[in-house]
Amino acid sequence: MKITLVGFLLVASAVADQCGSHEYNPETHVCNDNQYVCPILSGEALASCGESCYSYFEYSCDNGKDLVPLPAVDKPFELVTYNLYAPDVHDFPVYACGHRLYFGNGSATCTYCPNMPQLHGLCNDPGLITNRTILLGGSGGYGLATQVPGGQRGFIGPEGGLNYTQAHSASVPNGSQYDGILAYQQGAFIDTKSEFGWAACGQFNADDEVPVWDILAFRKAVVLWDYYDVCAEVKLLVVEADLENGTYVPWQYE
Ligand SMILES: *[C@@H]1O[C@H](CO)[C@@H](O)[C@H](O)[C@H]1NC(C)=O
Ligand SMILES: *[C@@H]1O[C@H](CO)[C@@H](O)[C@H](O)[C@H]1NC(C)=O
Ligand SMILES: *[C@@H]1O[C@H](CO)[C@@H](O)[C@H](O)[C@H]1NC(C)=O
Ligand SMILES: *[C@@H]1O[C@H](CO)[C@@H](O)[C@H](O)[C@H]1NC(C)=O
Ligand SMILES: *[C@@H]1O[C@H](CO)[C@@H](O)[C@H](O)[C@H]1NC(C)=O
């Protein structure tokens, strides 16, 4: 497994800082309220709620002590990447193309619209959504917001990729997972079955190559690791989509 924390390797010293009565390494941990040490996970310095550490993107802290999961998103949404410690993979819109979700300056959404009069404009009119990827949550899984009958279902493939089905087909590769994937309101899109969240992985052969990062469930068992040159931990954040009249979705994603 080749996991490189992009933007993270340059700082390799093991300096210890003081947090109240505890020593901690400021490259891997954060000191909250001058007394609680919490880890930095997937580019997020965890917050403190009483003595617990938590992610702002998964919980709220009630009464200064009780962790409460954020509500599930109930609107169509887009994903944006997050890792405050790795600028190469931070703050990119996530797109769907080639039956996988990915991002980076070299990425784009791939949509298809049949040439049917009643669908005119859904894909190709200026200003309509051709460069965004709109997802739907619910029932512990996710799907793509499409017009095509039957929709397109999201899943994690047996190799660890964040994939979706073809239009007109419910078939997924053997060993795929489509449950345990949650999207929180104003929070994160998470795979509850991954030990470490998501990884962004890219192949970079030439210096002038425009970056494209695939998104994988960050698990020990993922078989695609060797295929990539570099991977970085990343969070996926949910941004509710401002869909006028709910119609600005493509017929299908390719
Ligand atoms: C991506 O494109 C933006 C805008 O052109 C640029 O500022 C940024 O440096 C690029 N990022 C990478 C990683 O290529
Ligand atoms: C999509 O394209 C519009 C119009 O060109 C642009 O303003 C917008 O920033 C793009 N959105 C994304 C997520 O790339
Ligand atoms: C799933 O996603 C991975 C990573 O992006 C990709 O390599 C793979 O081809 C996709 N699998 C399917 C069945 O689309
Ligand atoms: C899918 O996997 C299950 C369990 O490993 C196996 O029993 C089944 O034969 C497989 N199906 C196909 C079509 O490969
Ligand atoms: C949305 O629906 C309203 C009311 O039906 C209509 O007036 C408006 O033009 C629609 N907007 C678009 C962008 O289609």
Automatic annotation (TrEMBL):
It comes from the Eukaryota. Residues 1-16 form the signal peptide. The keyword Manganese does not apply. InterPro entries: Eng1_septum, PhiA_domain. One of its GO terms (molecular function) is carbohydrate binding. Keywords: Signal. Residues 18-65 form the Endo-1,3(4)-beta-glucanase 1 carbohydrate binding domain. This is Endo-1,3(4)-beta-glucanase 1 carbohydrate binding domain-containing protein. It comes from Lophiotrema nucula.
